[in-house]
Design a protein that fits this description.
The structure is a single chain. By secondary structure, the protein is of the alpha/beta class. The protein has a domain at 6-88 and 153-227: Rossmann fold, CATH 3.40.50. It has 8 helices and 12 strands. The chain has helices spanning 44-51, 74-79, 95-105, 111-121, 137-149, 167-182, 194-200, 217-227; strands at residues 6-12, 14-15, 18-19, 24-28, 33-37, 59-64, 67-68, 80-83, 155-159, 186-190, 203-206, 213-215. It starts with 5 loop residues before the first strand and ends with a helix.
Length: 229
C-alpha cells in the first residue's frame, strides 16, 4: 500500500502558542480528497498553512509524504502545490508570463501547451497579455488556480478555491479536481461550497474550537448549508 500523502494526528495550530481550534486528526491518501469545513474563523486556513509549512504546529504530529514538513526542502516544494487566499502573482508579468514562468521554474516539459490549455480552461485566454492589476478579482482568482495546476505536484492544497468564481467555473473546477484524484493526486481543501464537497471530497473534517469531527461528504455538505443559510 502507498503511504499517506498527509497524516495529521492531534495536530494543534495557532499563533503565539494560543491554539485557534481543537486538535485535528486525519489521513489523506493518494487519489483522495479531504475537505476542511467549519465556520469562518474556525481555523481551517491555519491548518492548511501548517500543512504547507508556513506555520509551525503548536503540538501533535504532521507528516507530508511520510516526512516532517519543511517547505525549505526542494523535495517538498517539488511535490506540494498550494493556492491560498492571497494575491500571490508577479505584478510585473502578464497572465501568460506568470503561468509560463511557474511551469518552467518547476521543470515542466511542454510548458507552452499546458499554459495554453489552462488559459482556455480558466477563461483567461483573452487576457493572456494583461497584467494582473487589469483583471477583475474573479479573474485573478482564476489565475492563481491555474498557477496551482500548471506545476508538478503530489498534493494540491486549496483555501476556499470557490471564492469569486461563478457557478460554471465552480463546476469546471470540481471536474478538474476529480481528474486530479483519478491521476493519483491528493487534494486538501478548505471550502464553504457544499456542491464542491459532494463532487470532490471523500471525507471531511469539521474544524471547530471545541472538538473536530470526521464527516462523510453528505453530512459535511448539510453542515455547510446549515452554517451558511
Amino acid at each position: 500500500m502507498s503511504k499517506p500523502t498527509v497524516r495529521a494526528q492531534d495536530l494543534l495550530v495557532g499563533y503565539g502558542g494560543a491554539p485557534v481550534c481543537a486538535p485535528v486528526s486525519f489521513t489523506l491518501a493518494p487519489g483522495r480528497a479531504v475537505a476542511l469545513v467549519g465556520a469562518n474563523g474556525s481555523g481551517k486556513s491555519t491548518v492548511l498553512r501548517a500543512v504547507i509549512g508556513l506555520l509551525e504546529p503548536t503540538s501533535g504530529s504532521l507528516r507530508v509524504l511520510g516526512e516532517p514538513v519543511d517547505e525549505r526542502e526542494v523535495a517538498f516544494r517539488a511535490q506540494v502545490a498550494s493556492v491560498l487566499d492571497d494575491d500571490a502573482y508577479f505584478p510585473a508579468l502578464t497572465v501568460h508570463e506568470h503561468l509560463y514562468l511557474t511551469a518552467r521554474g518547476h521543470g515542466v516539459l511542454g510548458a507552452d501547451a499546458l499554459v495554453r490549455e489552462l488559459l482556455e480552461e480558466f477563461g483567461l485566454a483573452e487576457h493572456a497579455r494583461s497584467l494582473p492589476v487589469a483583471l477583475s478579482s474573479g479573474q485573478r482568482r482564476r489565475l492563481l488556480l491555474a498557477a496551482g495546476f500548471v506545476r508538478p505536484r503530489s498534493l494540491l492544497v486549496l483555501d476556499e478555491p470557490e471564492q469569486r468564481l461563478d457557478r460554471a467555473m465552480r463546476d469546471r473546477l470540481a471536474a478538474r479536481l476529480v481528474e486530479e484524484k483519478k491521476a493519483g493526486g491528493a487534494v486538501l481543501m478548505a471550502t464553504h461550497d457544499p456542491d464542491l464537497v459532494l463532487a470532490v471530497a471523500d471525507r471531511a473534517v469539521h474544524v471547530a474550537d471545541d472538538v473536530t469531527r470526521l464527516l462523510g461528504p453528505a453530512e459535511a455538505a448539510t453542515l455547510i448549508s446549515r452554517e451558511n443559510p
